[in-house]
Protein: Ferrochelatase
Organism: Thalictrum thalictroides
Amino acid sequence: MATKLVYGIQDPTTVEKCSELYYTRLARLPKISVKCCPFEGYNNESLRVSSCDLTDTRHVPFGRQLISGSARSRNSVGKTFCTTGVWTFDQHVSESSSQVTENKVGVLLLNLGGPETLNDVQPFLFNLFADPDIIRLPRLFRFLQKPLAQLISVLRAPKSKEGYASIGGGSPLRKITDEQAQALKMALEAKKLHANVYVAMRYWYPFTEEAVHQIKNDRITRLVVLPLYPQYSISTSGSSIRLLQSIFKEDTYLSRLPVSIIQSWYQREGYIKSMANLIEKELKIFSRPEEVIIFFSAHGVPVTYVEDAGDPYKDEMEDCISLIMNELKSRGIDNNHTLAYQSRVGPVQWLKPYTDDVLVELGQKGVKNLLAVPISFVSEHIETLEEIDMEYRELALESGIENWGRVPALGCTSSFISDLADAVIEALPLATAISPENSTKKNTSAESNTNILRYVFALFFGSVLAFILLFFPKLASSFKNYI
Ligand SMILES: C=CC1=C(C)c2cc3[nH]c(cc4nc(cc5[nH]c(cc1n2)c(C)c5CCC(=O)O)C(CCC(=O)O)=C4C)c(C)c3C=C
Ligand SMILES: [Fe+2]
């Protein structure tokens, strides 16, 4: 019952790192002992693989592709940096089998998405508010999610449209994310990893489903999922990852695809240094750089996310800011700094302090120089271009702040993209199937009946709610905070 694990790595300098990653993972699995896998070398035309014995195969997570012992693989595999992966074969497969599956690496960038025209604004808002990770209703009231999303999106659309109109009639997110995807592909190429890079937006085009469809069409064999949010929140990376998991579980091919998900990456040195570079550069524009308050403004989340649902967002944000400030300190930059949360929506309490309140307070305290640093997102978007550059700037100047600066979003900054490429390369060997084989669930007829009942129930109560709100405008005004 002995099974061989074979793997290949192009660059001898990465051998130790890669094997350590594989073995750490394998060693955690019960009843597997991994013997040493010496590196055998490679040449330009082909890749030689090493082999070793496992005592038990039952839990080997990478056992998808089957090749025989010390094999010659295709050049495209040989080119793959640190990713030629692990193949297994067991007693069911003849040792003379020569089947070699091409390794096709995919990187899936997750982002929020934004309306491209003013006509897209209301349907975009509907998609956003229909997400149970954005409006978290108690289980019993989940059937109201869509009617509520319809109502709130219609009520909020005029204000949102004004915002998008003021930044040119739509969100720049799609264009910037596509540019980041292209830059990441090139950075990976430069590091000898050939990969397809896909963009999956949560609430607008290209939707997550489209990107996943493309990944399947391209027969990707190993996937790294990279949310474009440095810090994890239930409402952002969490929501996108949950959607992905639900799509993958329903599909036989996808449920077996080895996937590595990078949950958050704010602590990466490359990111921290890139942010520090941007801040250092903007500080120099002030006539008295040492007097400038560095004002980190993060997108908020409702307090209940952190306190009740255990969202690590606030902790990660605070940790991120202390890492950036330490980096600046190491460069001799010792400015005062503060963190506040912006963009609250709806009637509930959000993380405090609020950006607008702190700006007013600082102005009243006599602060004259302020550098705003958007910290929860790596592209320009409505909340940097409109909320910070227009609303908050005006408020700050009215409150007595005389010199205002703003750090641009990282966008395609090369040190940042290069660091994302490193994150992908490091994550790749850790890929495992998102759900175990045979977990693809088929609806039983009892479940289908429950779903139909739920739908009828939702339709009925949704219509009643819409009716009440339409004819009792005072009740509707309790949603005013969404507007
Ligand atoms: C880390 C970033 C973000 C968190 C956390 C987040 C939580 C969150 N957002 C809303 C509601 C809205 N967000 C909207 C736009 C928007 N949100 C983010 C990022 C985070 N959201 C971005 C990057 C964008 C802009 C997209 C663009 O088009 O440029 C909007 C729409 C715009 C508006 O009307 O203000 C809403 C609404 C909630 C409720 C929430 C947490 C629960
Ligand atoms: Fe948001």
Notes: The radius of gyration is 25 Å. The pocket of fe (ii) ion (ligand 2) is lined by residues 299, 343 (CB under 6 Å). The chain has 16 helices and 14 strands.
